[in-house]
Amino acid sequence: MNETVLLKQDVGQASTKKVGRVSTKARREFIRELSVLLKARLRITESLEMLQRQSGSKSLGEVLRGVNRRVKSGASLAEAMRVYPSVFDTFLCSLVEVGELTGSLPEMLSRVSAYQQKMANLKRKLVQSMTYPLLVIGVAVSALTFIVLFVLPTFAGLFREFGAELPWLTRTLMSLSAFVNKNAFAISLTVLAILFLLRIVLKQPAVWTVLDRWVLALPILGNMVRKNLLAQFCRTMGTLLESGVSLLPALDVAERTLSNSMMRRELQKIRRAAGGGGSISASLKTSAIFPISLARIIGVGEETAELPEMLLEVADAYDEDLDAAIELLGSVIEPVMIVLLGLIIGVILVSIYLPLFKMSTIMPG
Taking 90 as the threshold, does the pLDDT of residue 241 lie above it? Predict the structure, then answer.
């Protein structure tokens, strides 16, 4: 049995082998470091061995060992990476293949590294914009839970000793506290069951189709998500086309990188139209998701043969718009959350101290 057959068997077996989870940061650092080593004129196998030894991720180290073994057996780097699709995505493998064919692998990896860094920065900004509201909500829920479970029952016993009728707000909160304390175990089980069911439901593709459509329809958040997806699409397409990937494969890769099922469907239509000889801009003009302004800009790029540059410029513009939207949203959400939390705590405090302020009506005469 010759070496080629052995390699094919090895690749086939490895493609079904499960590998441990590799973090996005570890993958990003690997691409950047591999680019630097190849620019220093080290061979691919030497670079992979060095990075495998220095890897802080055990899972990534095992993957790099397998990639290096396949490269030594005669496979290209792109072929070896495709064995591990959960670690190396289609976008990366496509550009690595182009880099190997054109003899510009170090520069191509550097371009991938820059792309990944921009996408990571954009994701970090989105996460940061939601961190503060979620933190405030978490603090509010924790404070309310403590008050309902421990503070209100103490005052309830005190008010019962007075034997007088309490204000409706106080009675409502006391009834709520009594219900929660009496059914705390059942409520906890219900919450856990709901979370478990949500986890199962969210694994269904049909559910994500509905959610993706719903998210894009949201007034403010939907616009931010749309700009994020458009920036990702434009940057992916621009990077691929600039690197020498042809139009149809670039559209295919761009479709796979998007997380929103609605946009993926639109890109499938655009890819079919482009495969039939149509232009991207003409297909985008009939889309209900992609803005008409993007179609016009891409149309100019197609006419002037500067489509990659135009796409990258549009991606930068979407990034700037998204940065401004995130900053504005953060400046609005912060005071709103503080006021809302203050109102909730204030209502609870008023409900507790209102009977004390009317002690003369509560204490028996």
Answer: no
Q: How far is CA 67 from the centre of its chain?
A: 27
Rg of the chain over CA atoms, in angstroms? 29
pLDDT score at 153: 81
pLDDT tens per residue, range 257-272:
888 888 888 888 888 8
User: Could you tell me if 354 and 167 are in contact, meaning their C-beta atoms sit under 8 angstroms apart?
Assistant: yes
In this model, does residue 248 exceed pLDDT 50?
yes
- Domains of the chain, by residue range, sit at 12-88, 116-365
Distances (CA, A) of 331 to 154, 291, 327: 39, 27, 6
CATH topology of domain 116-365: Receptor-associated Protein (1.20.81)
Q: Would you say 3 and 74 are in contact if contact means Cβ atoms under 8 Å apart?
A: yes
Phi first, then psi: give them for residue 256, nearest 5 degrees.
-70, -30
Q: From 352, 349, 335, select the one nearest 136 (Cα to Cα).
A: 335
* 159, 166 Cβ separation under 8 angstroms: yes
In degrees and rounded to multiples of 5, residue 73 shows phi and psi of: -85, 0
